[in-house]
Automatic annotation (TrEMBL), chains A, B:
Keywords: Cytoplasm, Lipid biosynthesis, Lipid metabolism, Phospholipid biosynthesis, Phospholipid metabolism, Transferase. This is Phosphate acyltransferase. The gene is plsX. GO terms for biological process: fatty acid biosynthetic process; phospholipid biosynthetic process. The keyword Translocase does not apply.
Length: 338, 338
């Protein structure tokens, strides 16, 4: 791979569109001198944000006109028929045509999944792509997959997820032998549903991974595993339930500190500490979920991402390009499953 | 049902056995003058705790000798063969022989499930019992089922859970028409795995429930539903993941308030508020999960329950006896599924 690389940005995606995605991309271009960007979206919506570019940046930006935008609420299945003129479609196409090394979008997740799979195809040996994202732990973070791309998974799919997750963690976090855990409702061999029990046997037999066995929900955040594997239904519900409880704790906390003047003063005094804590736990700091298993790099940003937060998704894309994650997955799958 | 009722207590179950379970039961007898208790366990382990009883309490206590105890780590399937002399087995038998209206145990959950099903049988029309427990929400609490009894559920099972959960919430919380939600990864009809989509149709067609449709993981704690239905695999992982995140937040919080003397003083000043908050969120305050769908009332306490906490499980038993929850479920199932 050359030292120069290009990201195709679906600038229309997300709640804020070009207002967020274009300035975030320009910032990334400043940070990464070897990076070029193809801004895919409605030309008229993009150009107002391209004033006052320095020559150095301007020469690394290209606008690719796409008249349509896929709505956040659009049915993923319909985007195959109706989405061909959309910014998301065209951004993915740039990757399939080798005109960009990665696509970053804050758009409709389901559509990105469907279009990504259709346009880029899965890697040989991979049946289904999976969504992987980092999750905070006591000691830092771990990666969890799948987070919602696949609601009905077989044991073989879970094995593929385990291999892909391990490869990505190895590449991006530079951990030599990531500890891979399978999410289950107990740690004993007899526990769990049929797919999980079978998947555990497959991962063990496969032998090439640093498999630490089952881990329970409460160990998701304990730092026990570097990669946590589960089906997309369970993964989505585990993460969202946790978010829900965090929100409940925060609400109870706020109302506790509003009872009376003394408590209000305390809250005021404690606010720098609380803000620091909030920052540490902020999900936007781990923005940038990857769609692993495709013949190309696709990064999904939160729809509600602000400029800084969209920047994290771009950083994730750069890290995966630099490590050529798809090629590494391909090799491991050939090596381990052939 | 007579105004007088009896609970069979498996006093040997849990991490602390009779040391916790017997005093907790004696306290409950003081609170509920119509309650009698059969203390099931090893006689020699129980009698030391029965000194100095007032005549009023003494006449409502009976010790039922059971020489064996089911170990917390025992394989549930083996307890059917080897557990017949155990306190758990004998406590459940008292319910099946109509010598007690409910059984309360802090013992091995899997064993309680297997023995409960074998000794008490499921209610007509119910294929599988489910574990239900309350979960804190912004506005109070909701009930969630199943929490781990059934790892592979069909849509019909989820429908039965919905009916049972609705009945219990109606009876115990006196809510006329509990809002029932189905846990899923999105709110649109097309989202979710096959069982959940089919279950949603079944619950809708069934018509008799106040079904509010899908709810996502983050709405578990928002108070949107009074009853949340899911399979035991998902339910267990949702709750445990949330617990894990709460622990992570608490750890980060503590370490944030340990950096420097000023923050330590702040933490000290804030400690009454934090303790109040901790109390509000304390899972032991919602101790007492019910095994719904059996021909009898069975309440599972946390294994680590202390005296006060085991008392909540006894209270739950009293509430379900007073409302005769199994009979109500039976009626609803006949009414709705016949």
């Amino acid at each position: 791979m050359s030292d120069y690389y290009t990201i195709a940005v679906d600038v229309m995606g997300g709640d804020f569109g070009p207002r967020v995605t274009v300035p975030a991309t320009l910032n990334a271009l400043k940070r990464y001198p070897h990076l070029s960007a193809k801004l895919v979206g409605h030309q008229e919506a993009i150009t107002p944000f391209l004033n006052k570019l320095t020559a150095d940046i301007a020469c690394r930006v290209e606008v690719i006109h796409a008249p349509d935008t896929i709505a956040m609420g659009a049915k993923p299945s319909q985007t195959l028929r109706n989405g061909q003129q959309s910014s998301m479609y065209k951004a993915l196409e740039l990757v399939s045509e080798h005109k960009a090394e990665a696509c970053v979008s804050a758009g409709n997740t389901g559509a990105l999944m469907v279009l990504g799979r259709y346009i880029l195809r899965t890697l040989p040996g991979i049946d289904r792509p999976a969504i992987i994202s980092s999750v905070p732990t006591v000691s830092g973070h771990c990666y969890m997959l799948d987070l919602g791309a696949n609601v009905d998974c077989s044991a073989e799919h879970l094995l593929q997820f385990a291999i892909m997750g391990s490869v990505m963690t190895q590449a991006v976090d530079e951990i030599a032998s990531p500890r891979v855990g399978l999410l289950n409702i107990g740690q004993e061999q007899v526990k769990g549903n049929e797919q999980v029990k079978l998947a555990s046997r497959l991962i063990e037999e496969q032998g090439g991974l640093n498999y630490i066995g089952y881990i329970e929900g409460d160990d998701l955040y304990s730092g026990k595993a570097d990669v946590v594997v589960c089906d997309g239904f369970v993964g989505n519900i585990a993460l969202k339930s946790s978010e829900g409880l965090a929100r409940l704790i925060s609400k109870k906390f706020q109302s506790s500190f509003k009872k009376g003047i003394y408590r209000r003063i305390l809250a005021l005094l404690a606010s720098p500490v609380l803000n620091e804590l909030k920052k540490q736990m902020d999900p936007s700091r781990r923005n940038g979920a990857s769609l692993l298993g495709l013949q190309g790099i696709v990064i999904k940003s939160h729809g509600s991402a602000n400029k800084k937060c969209f920047g994290f998704a771009l950083e994730q894309a750069v890290a995966e390009i630099e490590q050529n994650v798809p090629r590494q997955i391909c090799r491991e799958i050939e090596d381990k499953l052939a």
